[in-house]
Amino acid sequence: MKALILGGTTEATALARLLDGHPRIDATVSLAGRTKQPVLPPLPTRIGGFGGVDGLAAHLVENGIGAVVDATHPFADQISANAAAACARLGVPLLVLTRKPWEPAAGDRWIGVPDMAAAAEALRPLGESVFLTIGRQEVAAFEAVPDKRYLIRAVDPPEPPPNLPDHRLILDRGPFTLEGECALLEEHRVEVVVSKNSGGSATEAKLEAARRRGIPVVMVERPPGNGVAEVHGAAAALAWLEAR
Ligand SMILES: NC(=O)c1ccc[n+]([C@@H]2O[C@H](COP(=O)([O-])OP(=O)(O)OC[C@H]3O[C@@H](n4cnc5c(N)ncnc54)[C@H](OP(=O)(O)O)[C@@H]3O)[C@@H](O)[C@H]2O)c1
Questions:
Q1: Does residue 57 belong to any structural domain of this protein?
Q2: Has this prediction a pTM greater than 0.85?
């Protein structure tokens, strides 16, 4: 059976490793092409958008795809909606492979918000020194609250550069250690962290570091799903594919 994995995450790479050399499943991984130097999975990989729902549906038909695993990031809501629509249209089975969301622990001071505009608004009464760990695509939302000192961490630089009078950029890719995150918050005297509720272990240390420092985390909650069946581990996604 031919399978398509919509990737761009550590979960997709983990599933690709399990499928490498699989005797019955011939899988390809698809990446959006956002990251300049992506971590390539050990499977045939195509890079670039499909051209919306119609383009994805055409790709599934032309390549005889029998099942799709949407292992994209929980905040990549457009491609997930497209996959749900294209698979429903063609009757191709679809599974979402995603990380469990993070849950607040004792001592956490999380402020839950629905989107990036609300995250920027939530900063107004909080501290001056803000650590933005939200990726590079939505930094412009914080231009609505320009009078803060922003430390921005992303894999690639935001484009166009953020129009924030006081900002510093750190280009880095996880996993990050607790020790490193605590040192970073101390070095930059960070008073508030902004994060998406991405889940997963690679970037979780910042939350523990914020808890230890006693500072708030403005937590952007996940967009609603599309009613597609969901699993949290690559092994469960492999079992689902093998059962097709
Ligand atoms: N959003 C995040 O916070 C985040 C964080 C880490 C990694 N990522 C990864 O980065 C990629 C882009 O994320 P996004 O938030 O920009 O996506 P998005 O807003 O949901 O998707 C925008 C468009 O990008 C194309 N696209 C997205 N993922 C694709 C994939 N895996 N293969 C082929 N085309 C894809 C599609 O173009 P067409 O309509 O032309 O098909 C889609 O309509 C995803 O693969 C995601 O897993 C995202």
A1: yes
A2: yes
Pocket test for ligand 1, best of 35, 78, 79 (most atoms within 8 A of CB): 79
- Whether residue 59 sits in one domain with residue 33: yes
Our answer on whether the CB atom of 49 is closer than 6 Å to any ligand 1 atom is yes
Phi and psi torsions of 171, nearest 5°: -95, 115
Q: What are phi and psi of 180, to 5 degrees?
A: -65, -40
Task: Verify that 62 and 125 share a domain, yes or no.
Answer: no
Return the SS3 of 208: helix
Q: Which domain holds residue 130?
A: 110-220
89-137 residue pLDDT tens:
999 999 999 999 999 999 999 999 999 999 999 999 999 999 999 999 9
pLDDT of 58 higher than 90 = yes
CA neighbours closer than 13 Å in the CB half-sphere of residue 228: 28
